[in-house]
Design goal:
This protein is mainly beta and about 400 residues long. It has four domains: about 90 residues, Immunoglobulin-like (Sandwich), CATH 2.60.40.10; about 90 residues, Immunoglobulin-like, CATH 2.60.40; about 90 residues, Immunoglobulin-like; about 90 residues, Immunoglobulin-like. The chain contains no helices and 34 strands. The strands form nine sheets. A five-stranded mixed β-sheet has the order 4-10-9-6-7, with no helix packed on it. The chain starts with a strand and ends with a strand.
């Protein structure tokens, strides 16, 4: 405050007096660094009642506070108090503004200072989570998935493999993030997430489920002709019995690389044609819906559809006649690979049975003179039968 001298002139007879009187005059406010802090400096609040602090240097003596810029609520001057306490705005959400003026001891008034805060009691809307995995299954070793997340106006999010969010922390909101599922066993997994905004309004918990399937089909098996070791089917046709627990598709091949073989729907049986005479191996591999592939299963079988070869029958060393009174003759038999033989005097082998193969065999012809025929056929160990071979001799007694 500056002091000025004012001259007062008094007109008196023959004398003029000049008196200087000191008086005060307002020049500037004695208040500096005037500022307001609402809600501890936080921009957002869930309640319309917030902490109010008023800061200023100098000598503030009084203040007036209002929710209106023009102080139309007739806010009165009250003693200055820096830590004012709680201030209430009108109900409803949105931006709320407070207006403050200060007055010093000389009556100097500051310009109106204002500060705002946003009242927000609404949590982020439309919270959602989606687990992205190929074909809807997880079969990678790390059980890593991609999470697609959404929540309108969310600032942070918390993700967990448990509903209790044990050891989970808030992290900056992102629409997409990588995530590792927990646990070692296959089965359903659930991922939980919640969101929060700047005002710390928290959403309800939302979750999504995904199937973990990293275990391949178990106990893969393939059996040829119910595990027979030999087949003599003339066309090489056999029946396969297949099994693999949890399988959805399978491949069958005579090659361990399965080159050029496509996956087909899983079945427990199928017809198969062998590739060549001799030993044949059939391989099978299975996979489940998550493309987990089993170990290779296999079985083998011997395909032998070739009957004994170089077959012949000779009676009495090729003689044309026999005069044996008992009708007995000597048969000389030949059949490469034969194990059994069947001999008969009848073309239909009536009442004949298989007997062990012998190269020399004593045989009795049918009664009566005339041309006699002896019929024979041979069989190997795998049941392959030859055609009928005939020996002829004439009975003459």
């Amino acid at each position: 405050m500056k002091k000025f001298l004012t001259k007062i002139f008094l007109v008196l007879p023959l004398t003029i007096l000049s008196i200087q009187v000191a008086q005060s005059q307002d020049v500037e406010a004695r208040i500096d660094n005037f500022r307001i802090r609402l809600n501890g400096g936080s921009k957002y609040t869930q309640t319309p009642t917030v902490a109010l602090e008023i800061m200023a240097s100098g000598e503030p003596r009084e203040m007036r506070i209002s929710n209106y810029e023009d102080f139309k609520d007739n806010s009165s001057w009250i003693p200055f108090k820096g830590n004012f306490g709680q201030w209430s705005f009108s109900n409803g959400e949105g931006e709320k503004t407070i207006y403050v003026q200060l007055k010093d001891k000389f009556g100097n008034i500051t310009p109106v200072m204002k500060e705002s805060v946003i009242v927000d009691r609404t949590p982020p809307a439309n919270p959602s989570i989606k687990i992205i995995a190929e074909k809807g299954f997880v079969n990678n070793p790390n059980k890593e998935v991609t999470l697609e997340l959404n929540a309108d106006d969310a600032k942070y999010m918390m993700i967990s493999n448990s509903k209790g969010f044990i050891k989970a922390r808030w992290q900056a909101f992102r629409n997409s993030t990588k995530w590792n599922l927990e646990g070692t066993a296959d089965g359903m997994r659930e991922v939980f997430v919640k969101f929060i905004d700047d005002a710390k309004n928290e959403t309800q918990i939302v979750s999504a489920q995904i199937l973990v399937d990293s275990e391949p089909p178990l106990d893969p098996k393939v059996l040829i002709n119910a595990d027979q070791k030999v087949t003599n089917d003339k066309n090489g046709k056999v029946s396969l019995t297949l099994f693999a627990r949890g399988a959805s598709h399978m491949k069958v091949s005579t090659d361990t690389t399965f080159a050029g073989v496509n996956w087909v729907p899983y079945a427990t049986s199928m017809e198969w044609k062998l590739a060549q005479q001799g030993k044949n191996v059939v391989y099978a591999r299975f996979k489940d819906q998550s493309n987990n592939e089993s170990k290779i299963a296999f079985d083998d079988i011997e395909w032998d559809s070739t009957p004994p070869e170089d077959c012949s029958i000779t009676i009495n060393d090729g003689a044309k006649y026999t005069e044996d009174i008992d009708r007995n003759v000597n048969l000389k038999l030949k059949a490469k690979g034969a194990i059994f033989m069947m001999i008969s005097n009848n073309a239909d082998f009536t009442n004949a049975g298989w007997i062990p193969y012998k190269e020399n065999y004593r045989w009795q012809l049918t009664p009566g003179n005339g041309e006699k025929k002896v019929y024979v056929r041979f069989k190997d160990e795998n049941g392959n039968e030859t055609d009928v071979f005939i020996g002829i001799i004439t009975q003459a007694i």
